[in-house]
Amino acid sequence: MIPFLVCVLLFLFGLYAIVVKRNLIKMIIGFCFMEYAVNLFFAFAGFKREALAPIITDPDMARNFVDPLPQALVLTAIVIGLATTALMLALAMRIYAKYKTFDITEIRRLKG
Amino acid sequence: MRGMTSIVQTVAGLVAGMLFLYGCYITLHGHLTPGGGFAGGVIVAASFILMSLAFGSVEDSERSSYRFSSFFESLGGLLFLGVGLVGYFAGYAFLNNLWAMVGRPLHLVSGGIIPLANIAIGLKVGAGLWAIFLALGASQYVMKEGP
Amino acid sequence: MTEIYVVLIAMLAAAVVAIEVKDLLAAAVAMGMVGFSVAIAFILVQAPDLAIVQIVVEILTVVFFAAVILRTTHTDTTVGKRLKQELVFPAVVYGGFALLFMVLACRVFSELPAFGEPVMRVARDYIAIGLQQTGAANLVAAVILDFRAYDTLGEVVVLFTAVVGVLTVVRRLGRKADKKPEEK
User: Fold this and answer.
1) Beta carbons within 10 angstroms of residue A61's beta carbon
2) Could you report the per-residue pLDDT of A100-111, keeping only the tens digit for each?
3) Burial class of residue C94, CB neighbours in 10 A (0-12, 13-18, 19+)
4) Using CB atoms and an 8 Å cut-off, which of residues 35-94 of chain B contact chain A?
5) Is A18 strand, coil or helix?
6) DSSP letter at C58?
7) Residue A46's domain spans which residues?
8) Predicted confidence (pLDDT) at residue C136 exceeds the cutoff of 90
9) Chain B contacts of C133, Cβ < 8 Å?
10) DSSP for residue A62
11) How many cross-chain Cβ pairs, A to C, lie less than 8 Å apart?
């Protein structure tokens, strides 16, 4: 149960960076942490003690494998996470080009 | 975008080709060993990014790289759709695995549409990430001209 | 399973560093350490597919962060100042939410199957018939490209949308502004 709680802690660190931090890059880093936490939680949920990775090397082998389903779900999510992170970075770069700062309170003040 | 020193350039020139081949290997053997289209595509994109970071680039080559990457990105997406539609037009469900029993299991020619779909996804992911890198890192557009 | 706890503790420490450090480039590097710790954890829970993808994706993430930070600014000007007035309320709400979340998580995890003993109700079939029905030895590939190929199709669409979004946001500026403003 402790590895699951570590995932929740990492998720809460990411949420802290998003809610309380005021720097845009730090907020994006927090978003990445939340992604990692969810991916890690899936991988932990499918883990089975004393089992092998789900790859068949011999058709007659004993199939004592970990759960392949969470791994398949996470595999696509990791690459999606990279693409969305790049999208957020592009938006942050665009905001910096306009306001010359990453501080969201400054940006809010400069808007009017 | 400027290049780096000659030490970096020499090592990058030695490594990048092997990195590209390794990405192709991971993509093609995705149904037998760990890896697959996602990992292989990202590794291929990493080889291109390594060359670009080490040797720098000029604006004309960046523009042709944009065309190159958008062509391969579209090709990958359409290839994946085509692999799905083959099953549909053969009278089964969309993305049906038609040739699942062709070839011997645990060899390279096996798995039906899975290697083909891996190749399509590898093309798509590699070209897409290379285009993202060009947009974020190499192009001089945003900062120089300003809003 | 001692090594997985060591990796997880290193991951949490690097996460704290990444969030609190003043130099943004150092924050990106610390984020890279978190990602590599996640990759090592994937290897330890027998998920080599995920480990390969996570390592390469982490490298590219740090490269993207460095590309953006080197072109904008290094320093995080908001670190070290006192909490501003308008951020006290989010901080308090966050504290309450975190406490509630941890309590609920403890209660929920005590009812989930324990770490290391999954239920595997769906995966039992996949493992039993995967090689016969798809011909792929890697069961993860069999799941993402045969049993659940629609999931991958949706992922391809999302990736395409994200790439188009990035290229749209960072396009060359002023293609319209170059022309003279036309009279109505």
Assistant:
1) 10
2) 888 888 887 776
3) middle
4) 36, 38, 42
5) helix
6) H
7) 2-53+64-110
8) no
9) 97, 100
10) -
11) 249
